[in-house]
Model the fold of this input.
Amino acid sequence: MNKKNHRYPNSSKDLSYTESPESAVGIPAIWHSLRQMGKYMDVPEAIKASLKMNQKGGFDCPGCAWPDPDDHRSPLGEYCENGIKALVEEATPAKADGAFFEKYSVEELSSWGEFELGKSGRVTEPMYLAPGATHYKSIAWADAFEKIGKHLRSLENPNEAIFYTSGRTSNEAAFLYGAFVRAYGTNNLPDCSNMCHETSGYGLSETLGIGKGAVTLDDIHEADLVMVIGQNPGTNHPRMLTALENCKRNGGAIISVNPLKEAGLQHYTNPQKPLRILSGGTDLSDLYLQVQVNGDVALLKAIMLRLLEKDKSQGGIIDHEFIKNHTHGYDEFISDISKEDFETCVLESGVSEQEIRKAAELIAEKPKMIICWAMGITQHENGVQNVREIVNLLLLRGAVGKRGAGPCPVRGHSNVQGDRTMGIWEKMPEQFLVNLDSAFGIKSPREHGHATVPAIKAMHEGKAKIFIGMGGNFVSATPDTDYTAEALRKCDLTVHISTKPNRSHLVHGREAIILPTLGRSEIDLQSSGYQFISTENSMGIVQNSKGVLTPKSTELKSEVAIVAGIAKSAFAHRDDISIDWDALSGDYDLIRDKIEEVIPGFENYNNRVREKSGFYLPNGVKLRDFKTKTGKANFTINRRPNLILGVDEFRLMTVRAHDQYNTTLYGLDDRYRGIKNGREIILIHPEDIKDLGMSAGEVVDVVSNYDGVERSVYNFRLVPYDIPRKCLGSYFPEANPLVSIHQVNPETHTPISKNIIVKIVPASKN
Ligand SMILES: Nc1nc2c(c(=O)[nH]1)N[C@H]1C(S)=C(S)[C@@H](COP(=O)(O)OP(=O)(O)OC[C@H]3O[C@@H](n4cnc5c(=O)[nH]c(N)nc54)[C@H](O)[C@@H]3O)O[C@H]1N2
Ligand SMILES: Nc1nc2c(c(=O)[nH]1)N[C@H]1C(S)=C(S)[C@@H](COP(=O)(O)OP(=O)(O)OC[C@H]3O[C@@H](n4cnc5c(=O)[nH]c(N)nc54)[C@H](O)[C@@H]3O)O[C@H]1N2
Ligand code: SF4
Ligand SMILES: [Mo]
Done:
């Protein structure tokens, strides 16, 4: 048996937990936002920035991808506690400068936790780690670009380089980066989306013909029913609670489907509405279904069986007119689902029959239905099937392409959707490549590149030798931490374009470079003057974003300028490429002109993006124009996943705490779940603790076993919690070493971060 033993710096010595509080936001959130600003920002800067965040003409919150209202924006601040934390993280006056890296060796920094690394501040100058060196040293920008260019020029095959993107990157930077990488000769453009909503994109493209959602904020306000499944908006998309509250006030109902009773979905006090704070807030969920981890297909099938039965007896439930005119595959779908046994579906969902019947009643009464989802649906081996089953339910109700209805995959990073629209994908369609070639006079390769997991494997096998990360924290965000670390260490060069130090700077190739970049809140001055960038939110609205704060160092370059610098150096000896990188990076309007040339929907981009609320991209699904192979919306047949566990096995999902942004830790608490001062935890049903013969709070090791490799993490604490039997919760990224690199959704290579089969064993002494 091959063993991988992972030891992260452990943060949980002083961990404590209480029964989780039931409500979200309200006064405590206002207090936590203010405290965070006071603690980590200069006060005048904090005020200036917070008045501009998410306001028309200001900058887009660097947190999640939730949209801003089209019209009225609250003068009390159009942001949430976690938006403030994202801003504070970026706008901190603390600096990880040359002196910092001179003081601390890579080895010493490696013993720090992710929290301490981030709190060391902004990287303020380019840093270089020479082969065999113990410390990063300052390097001039020109020399850094030259080193990267030299490495890129020396590769035998462009496919030996990997160009990763994290979803905070602007449209302009992402587009230019994609053009550079394809001019260089590869489609190796993996991104964080591969680990995130890739299964949504895949499932929606197959069934509805567009890899995005099809609802607006107004649709949510107008819906009769919103189902929130596999998502924790109170922490990860806090202003979504305001939209849900509006929906309820307009008479809508909310069903939440989650193994955890997430605080925000139960009770919500809107911080932007003082009267509602005084009145104690709103109870959001009308019905809570405590599904077991990965029990969603079974649950959706049980609900659909009930709806079909009801339609047979009383009619009016299934939208036969819509199905006849706009869909394909209904008969096959019906013949398949008719073979399902209702009781088995109920049993596998983990929800009681009575509650499933209640859910079906509610759905049957409410024609305008929206389903919102996030990682609890997508990060499964059967992630695509989960998404397609959601679409089946919407199609049965005709709840697609009409007001107040439709699919709503709630996107994560603030511009992850825009990056994909801009061409960050290892397999962009032919028409995009044709247009790109003609706009830049290049010949893009047609061979598909690597998504994230195949990229890691390519590095591990020595087939890729250079890794460049446009943002992100690759080693901590990806699965199988030790395998990924080995892969990165085999590279000749690892480069990170970053705002803050993170673990990926410490797990490096033979040489390593950190290129420090401007954050979204900072003023971006180029040769033609003050620049703005643009982003696309979760609802397909493209808007401008203009930083207002003085950059933390005069040495910082914008992401666009960094792409241009690398490209100029990589192509120094190529006279077949005649792209004027200086002109493009000197004036982002010129990049937007190119975007307009290449991507449909961006007509008149430079004018429309200057409109204060931005503009909607075209979305055929809203008009019932389905660009699928059949020209219709497709019903699909999806299998229930095998949920049988062996003796002593549990199903573990990795989730986000309230005090983190992916691998960035704002703090060590998870207020809404009652956990304080530590992150190495396992949420577990109290009866399961008893069955293990263990006690609450006990320190344990967790072991997974896949493909003949035993993977362990150490010294996690058992926290008794209201979670289904045999299901566990733990935090990302601390539990990532347990996820096998080989266990992915087969269609998209998305790691199975929500379905890790593990055993809990007494803590080892070593
Ligand atoms: N503050 C903050 N905001 C963020 C982020 C952050 O880290 N911090 N990250 C951003 C990013 S990149 C993303 S992708 C989003 C992520 O947003 P979410 O998807 O909300 O994030 P997770 O914490 O992964 O939560 C998944 C939820 O699904 C539930 N769940 C897990 N497994 C299952 C299952 O099998 N079935 C069902 N029905 N539910 C399940 C979990 O209990 C949890 O409530 O948030 C974005 N916004
Ligand atoms: N087990 C498990 N693993 C997961 C997940 C999970 O739920 N469970 N979730 C997955 C998901 S949904 C995602 S999206 C990925 C996230 O993966 P990534 O996007 O790779 O990770 P982040 O933690 O968001 O990246 C944080 C780093 O980005 C840099 N940064 C911040 N702002 C900027 C900026 O404006 N520009 C640039 N250039 N750099 C910046 C900082 O240096 C910071 O350290 O993780 C995935 N991994
Ligand atoms: S909901 Fe998301 S985008 Fe809006 S302020 Fe909060 S973190 Fe920022
Ligand atoms: Mo994500």
Remarks:
- DSSP finds 31 helices and 34 strands in the chain.
- The chain has a mean pLDDT of 93.
- Residues 28-87 form one domain.
